TrEMBL record:
Domain of life: Bacteria
Keywords, comma-separated and alphabetical: Membrane, Transmembrane, Transmembrane helix
Protein name: Uncharacterized protein
Transmembrane segments: 12-35, 47-67, 79-100
Length: 107
């Protein structure tokens, strides 16, 4: 017996479109902040945040493919979830790099 998550047919495309719009808006804001930044430290931080957004967006979109219609082999699902998790890990490292690069003092 296959245990799948029941949802309406339109739900996944709505989630993907909504997420994509939010990420696009985030990219525009971070790129505009990158352009307006004056110091190397600020540009470095915005670069880290751009890396975070790119990796995180890719991670979520890969994870959302697992929610799709049933019938995929479990190995494919496992590999997609593993790839998504690895990308999420690196996105969080990039996020932390951006946060830490905004500090005046070193840790």
């Amino acid at each position: 017996m296959i245990n799948t998550m029941a949802m309406e047919e339109e739900t996944l495309p709505i989630i993907i479109v909504g997420f994509s719009i939010m990420m696009l808006l985030s990219f525009v804001i971070v790129i505009s902040l990158f352009i307006k930044s004056h110091t190397i430290r600020e540009k470095k931080a915005m670069g880290y945040f751009l890396g975070f957004l790119l990796l995180f967006s890719t991670s979520v979109l890969i994870a959302l493919t697992v929610i799709g219609p049933p019938g995929k082999p479990s190995a494919v699902t496992s590999m997609r979830l593993a790839a998504s998790g690895i990308l999420w890990f690196f996105s969080m490292l990039s996020f932390l790099g951006g946060v830490l690069s905004t500090r005046q003092d070193s840790i």
